[in-house]
# Entry
Amino acid sequence: MAKQQDSNIAVSFFNIHNIITRGLQVSLESVQRILQGGFQGEMDQEGFFNYIRALSSVLNAHHLTEDDLAFPYFRDKLPEAPFDNWMYWHKKMVVILDEINLAMEKCEKKDQLEAGLRDMENALSRLKEGWPYHIQPETDEFINKADALVPVEEQLRLVKLFAEYVLQHALPLHLTVPFMLYNLPMEDRQVFSQWIPAEGILNLVPTSWKEKWESMIPFLLA
Ligand SMILES: [Fe+2]
Ligand SMILES: [Fe+2]
# Structure
């Protein structure tokens, strides 16, 4: 039998929003630190780019989950909620994510590293600035109301469905799964990890995937 907390749609959306909120904060602070003082070694450089890659992928996967599954499911149940407006904002954020991905490519060319980092700072600043204005109405008009509209067992089914969809699109998983887990404090991480459908994935994080993501550890929570 599912526990209410495990199956609560609101908790799952709060968690993913909190992951992205921290991801944007850490990414922006890090790019500003690097622009001032440079990378502190190869591990710092690898960790920074892995962290940005994971943020971009998770944010995109979250929006796809809302556009393709969550919003269509709740559209009739919440006729007042401005789903089309939110989907429009998702499209605008895709443009900024594309800028971030281009900036990352620029950084790979040695003579364009600083220009790439400046482009990234610019794009991340705009994304971080707009983010609260996107998630606040989503929280007020969708997330806080969704809980009362759907029975607990149905919420459990939906939360699993949404988690599976995120994992289908948030690639590569060896970066995005640890990124999602360790941008949450321990207590929330335990609840969040119950929604990850393939148990094998959780076993891979501390074992065979570790060397692929461990450069991100200084950017993550313990
Ligand atoms: Fe959204
Ligand atoms: Fe959202």
Observations:
- The two ends are 31 Å apart (CA to CA).
